[in-house]
Write a structure and sequence with these properties.
Layout (H helix, E strand, L loop, with lengths): L1 E7 L1 H6 L5 E4 L7 E11 L1 H7 L10 E13 L2 H9 L13 E10 L12 E3 L5
Parallel strand pairs: 1-3
Antiparallel strand pairs: 1-6, 2-5, 3-4, 4-5
């Protein structure tokens, strides 16, 4: 199955259904299921912004299965849409690239430690 590694708090925010868009520089034509892996890295500024949410932030673990349902080219209107949400999840900055729309989140509670990788990578599904 396809996997993408995200820093914390991003991985947990996706797993909790609070972050519906993943921002990337690359267009991605794949639509379907992908696993979200919480990497070892932490975005300290974002962690400070979302600390009031009191979430768990595991590292080096698969935390969710989601579906990529769309890939949106980020333009002025999309930036306005995201910034108008005034959400600590997204902050307020102008983005470039693409927004992968995520849906059908299934949180996974599995303490298995797995090393992440850059980009899209693959893992065998458990039987």
């Amino acid at each position: 199955m396809r996997v993408i590694t995200l820093k914390q708090p991003w991985a947990s925010l996706v797993a909790e259904g609070l972050k519906e868009y993943e921002f990337r520089n690359m267009k991605y034509s794949y639509r379907g299921k992908i696993l979200i892996h919480a990497g070892k890295g932490v975005d300290k500024e974002a962690m400070e912004r979302v600390k009031k949410l009191n979430l768990n932030y595991p590292k080096s673990q698969i935390v969710a299965e989601v579906e990529i349902v769309d890939c949106i080219k980020i333009d002025k209107e999309f930036n306005k849409f995201i910034n108008d949400l005034k959400s600590p999840v997204y902050g307020s900055k102008n983005r470039t690239g693409y927004a992968w729309k995520l849906a059908n989140v299934k949180k996974i509670n599995d303490n298995t430690i797995i090393s992440g990788k850059q980009g899209i990578w693959y893992i065998n599904e458990k039987d």
